[in-house]
Amino acid sequence: MSETASIVTFMKTGRLGPLEIGSPEANVRALLGPPEAIGRGFGKTLIQQYAGGRLELTVSKAKQLVLIALFPFRGSEPSGVALLDDLPTGARESAAVLEQWLRQERLSFEIVDEDADSRALRLATGVTVSFSNGSLYSVQRS
Asked: CB of 136 within 8 A of CB of 128?
């Protein structure tokens, strides 16, 4: 990816560098090349994995991007994507720290799922941030 993307920019804008929901699959392939793995999703979608599974892109039957998902602790760092470098200290280990930072950045959110082991926040940008067992698990937008 020639344009550097970051997890913070993704949370703030819902875009991962030049990638956004609705992008044609051809544009995704032109930016990232062929995926390392492809699997079937729901409703005839294709899940394409890059960077050892850290980046998952789901493409619809109409060949448009319908889901961007980052899994910061899987695989390797995708080229041109600074997944964790710009997160505030402690945010990847604590939902409370991330929530405090979101408030400081004036990013509105709501808690959409919570139990003893997990917590999910939905940001106004449409991005969902999930924590599992106290650590950041995924950041995604559909």
From this structure: no
Distance CA 38, CA 7 (A): 23
Rounded Cα–Cα distance for residues 65 and 87 (Å) = 25
Tokens representing 81? 């994507």
Q: Per residue in 41-84, pLDDT tens? A: 777 788 888 877 888 899 988 899 998 998 877 765 555 555 55
Q: What is the pTM of this model?
A: 0.83
Pairing of β 127-132 and β 5-6: unpaired
What single DSSP character describes residue 67? E
| CA neighbor of 94 nearest in space, from 120, 131, 129, 123 | 131
**17, 80 in Cβ contact below 8 A?**
yes
d(CA 37, CA 55): 11
Domains of the chain: 5-82 (3.30.1450), 95-141 (no CATH)
Q: What is the mean pLDDT of the chain?
A: 84
With 50 as the cut, is the pLDDT of residue 8 above it?
yes
